[in-house]
């Protein structure tokens, strides 16, 4: 769970960093608070043997409504809800699953992989309708996958 959370935290922190309105010290505090909040939130909802189980619960979502976990971490550095709406995309979905972290900006954006690892045991996803796969059902063209590296 540690590398997946690190990828998600790094991605959200980099979104805040690109706007230039948050100091590096604030970003460090935000990253720590988000890391702790996600670890606590996922504690009983992390199933490496069934990575898609709990996917919807672990999904971080901004859809003209701010995700409460991001709000909680942002409050640690004094960012208000209106400031968060200015700094982050109005439409963002971030899937944090065992062995994979991916995101989509916009309702019709491509799904991009941030982090991918190989399961130590074979994992069967045949017939599984994950949160991410449900989003892709209505597509008329295939999405393109991009890999974004996250550094801290």
What are the salient characteristics of this protein?
152 residues; alpha+beta; Actin, Chain A, domain 4; 4-stranded antiparallel beta sheet; 6 helices; BTG; Anti_prolifrtn; BTG-like_sf
Q: Could you explain how this protein is built, in words?
A:
With about 150 residues, this protein is α+β, with helices and mostly antiparallel strands. It has helices spanning about 1-20, 25-40, 55-60, 70-75, 80-85, 130-135, and strands at about 60-65, 90-95, 100-105, 110-115. The protein has a single domain (about 1-115), classed as Anti-proliferative protein, N-terminal domain (Actin, Chain A, domain 4). It has 6 helices and 4 strands. It has a 4-stranded antiparallel sheet. The longest helix is centred in the N-terminal third of the chain and has 19 residues, at about 25-40. Residues about 120-130 and about 140-145 have low confidence and may be disordered. It comes from Patagioenas fasciata monilis. Belongs to the BTG family.
What does the secondary structure layout of this molecule look like, with pairings?
Blueprint: H1 2-19, H2 24-42, H3 55-58, E1 60-63, H4 68-75, H5 81-87, E2 91-97, E3 100-105, E4 112-116, H6 131-136
Antiparallel strand pairs: 1-2, 2-3, 3-4
Encode the helix/strand succession as letters.
Answer: HHHEHHEEEH
Radius of gyration: 15 Å
Beta-strand percentage?
A: 5-15%
- Number of helices in the DSSP assignment: 6
What CATH architecture would you give? Alpha-Beta Complex
CATH 4th-level superfamily: Anti-proliferative protein, N-terminal domain
Shape: globular
Distance between the termini: 17 Å
- Helix percentage range: 40-55%
Determine and state the CATH class. Answer: Alpha Beta
Largest sheet: 4 strands, antiparallel
How many independent structural domains?
1
| Residue runs with pLDDT of under 50 for 5 or more positions | 122-129, 139-146
User: Helices and strands: which structural class?
Assistant: alpha+beta
Output mean pLDDT.
Answer: 85
